Amino acid sequence: MRNFDLMIIGTGSGNSVIGPEHDDWDVAIVERDRFGGTCLNVGCIPSKMFVYAAEMAELASDSERLGVSTRFEGADWPAIRDRVFGRIDLIAEGGRVYREELPNVTVYAESGRFVGPKQLAVGDDVITADRIVIAAGGRPMVPPVPGLAGCGYHTSDSIMRLDRLPEQLLVIGAGYIAAELGGVMGAFGSEVTFLLRGDTFLRREDHDISSRFTAAYSRRFDVRTHTRLIEVRQDGAEVVISLVDEAGNRTELRGDELLVATGRRPNSDQLDVAAGGIEVDRRGFVITDDQLRTSVDGVWALGDITNPVQLKHVANHEARVVRHNLTNPDIPATVDHRFIPHAVFGYPQIASVGLTEQQCREKQIPYVSHVQPYAAAAYGWAMEDTDSVAKVIAHVETRRLLGAHIIGPQAPTLIQQLIQGMHFDLTIDQMARGQYYIHPALPEVVEQALLEI
């Protein structure tokens, strides 16, 4: 049984834990799949490369209102796909080669399972370590619909590597993965049908945002709300979904591809962390303290396996905390999850940080809010944008920003200054009046929203 100074399970953000300060450590890396984890291989990076190309297609289709004559004449799906993965796959393989060539690192390219405290079975070996970092991520969650398992469905892990663009795509789900990837296929020319369990996309967003997004997608796609899935079956080259619709009628939908985007779950069960004495919550997330220590001394966890907020920037922050704590146990760092922003790269884009108006009401927080249209700013006029808005929510008494929610072009960029304002504990008055906003740039929408409250 070989013992290491440090064992890292997973090579997404976990791979960045290793630094020059560990050059004299004997390190084991356990990775059953491509180096780089979810974000690099099947998540944020490839999906946003597709999203950018899809935005170009949307803009080409929608320029006549500005007096510009452009047309969208179709997408070369294999060329788009190969551009994306021709770059990403090289990065993933380069990451593996780099680690394998380090003299103090041993890479185990197999699945691992805990067989005891700080003991991991990898293939025919059992390895141990003085320090272990669990960064094994998560995977798509698939609902238990009869027939679904045998119908050749896709998840975010596989849909971006299709050989051809679907003519008719069925999408089960209403979250950000469904919205982004279904939107990409639709922009490139697929006929897309979304099957929603409830009445809106992105139900955790502020209502003013989710309702606008749902309306925008309903204008572009076939959106079925309040659906209950009965069964899924394969009929030749087609996937057939039987469902009960909002009116209570049973109906069938057909498509040549099916995307299941109903959430993600942590991989703690596949690692059998319980056998290692590592505690998880009822959803399977590894339980950690604010230093990211688990219930076993010398074992840390980070990223999607421990945090329900499954975002790359959160995992990166946690990796920095763990990296510090591995070599500085006497002056440990703690995580700061106060103001975690997120974005949805659909068309339109969404960005959000802090509380929604619904949450403020539930918590009985005295608040004031304002919704500012892009169209009220000069650059909004230039864009002829009549749908996009920025919403800000502030505490009535402290004048601190409680939440910010933007839907429209450049939303993830526009929100950044508000995140910084919250982090540095500025009042909304300081945010609005304490610096210049370039005229006539789009950030004036944010300035105007703050000034209104």
Could you give the topology of this structure?
Blueprint: E1 2-9, E2 27-30, H1 37-41, H2 44-61, H3 77-101, E3 105-108, E4 112-116, E5 119-122, E6 125-134, E7 138-140, E8 168-172, H4 176-188, E9 191-195, H5 207-220, E10 222-224, E11 228-235, E12 238-244, E13 250-255, E14 257-260, E15 264-266, H6 268-271, E16 299-301, H7 312-327, E17 342-344, E18 350-354, H8 357-362, E19 367-373, H9 378-383, E20 389-395, E21 401-407, H10 411-414, H11 416-423, H12 428-433, H13 444-452
Parallel strand pairs: 1-2, 1-6, 2-3, 6-16, 8-9, 8-14, 9-10
Antiparallel strand pairs: 4-5, 5-6, 7-15, 11-12, 12-13, 17-18, 18-21, 19-20, 20-21
Helix pairs in contact: 2-3, 2-4
Highlighted features:
globular; 453 residues; 5-stranded antiparallel β-sheet; 30% helix; 21 strands; 7-stranded mixed β-sheet
The count of DSSP E runs of length 2 or more, i.e. the number of strands, is 21
Number of H- or I-type helical stretches: 13
Helix content range: 25-40%
**Low-confidence runs:** none
Sheet of most strands? 7 strands, mixed
Write up what this structure looks like.
The protein is of the alpha/beta class and 453 residues long. Helices cover 30% and strands 25% of the residues. It has 13 helices and 21 strands. It has helices spanning 37-41, 44-61, 77-101, 176-188, 207-220, 268-271, 312-327, 357-362, 378-383, 411-414, 416-423, 428-433, 444-452; strands at residues 2-9, 27-30, 105-108, 112-116, 119-122, 125-134, 138-140, 168-172, 191-195, 222-224, 228-235, 238-244, 250-255, 257-260, 264-266, 299-301, 342-344, 350-354, 367-373, 389-395, 401-407. Strands 1, 2, 3, 4, 5, 6 and 16 form a 7-stranded mixed sheet that branches. A hairpin with a 5-residue loop joins strand 17 (342-344) and strand 18 (350-354). Helix 2 (44-61) runs antiparallel to helix 3.
